[in-house]
Amino acid sequence: xxxGRHLTAWLLLGLLTVVGAGGAVLGVVQSPKxxxxxAAVANTLAAPNYTEVLSEVTQEGDQTDYxxxxxxxxxxxxxESGSKRTHTYVYIIGPLEYQSVTVSSKASTAHLSxxxxxxxxxxxxxxxxxxYLSYAIPKNVKQSGNTYTYRLTERSTQGGSETGVFxxxxxxxxxxxxxxTLPQGSVKLIISQVGTSPPVALPSGAKLIAG
Length: 211
Description:
Layout: H1 8-21, H2 37-45, E1 49-58, E2 61-70, E3 74-81, E4 86-93, E5 96-100, E6 103-104, E7 113-118, H3 122-126, H4 128-133, E8 142-144, E9 147-155, E10 161-171, E11 174-182, E12 185-192, E13 207-210
Parallel strand pairs: 7-13
Antiparallel strand pairs: 1-2, 1-12, 2-3, 3-4, 4-5, 4-6, 5-7, 8-9, 9-10, 10-11, 11-12
């Protein structure tokens, strides 16, 4: 699946540095009705299910993933890309991944053909929410209401440096939005229907083909 594929290397490098330098933010002041940032992250990662929209903008092009995660081992939805708005449907159920042929966004999902193959990492490792929210958060986080922001500067592959801006929005007990903005692109992750998302299953009438 796409899921931040172009910016993941920078993200991993930077956040691993954060883990080594310091621990998660604790005791940040919050409104009585909302969880602290670290608690909201933990609550979201531990939720039984949620719906998510991942929008990625890079120099190579734009891509949006519309997904539902169902703990512990199901992830499904579709990837939208290209100016002609094509969709690729992808489901990870247990140890297997099912990916459809790419179709027009207006095409019916009935009787889609899915290529079946092993999914070594499983749903959790492919889920954008689990990946982007599972790293430690530094202590120098700025808070404005229920929005938390911090900057992280890393060396670029060209020998200079570049700064990423991380923003988290807390709604109630969960994270509702995460963004990472870099000079070469951005990631925006919107999380909703926590605990009330529909079950993940292949579309009715799907045709399975061995990969």
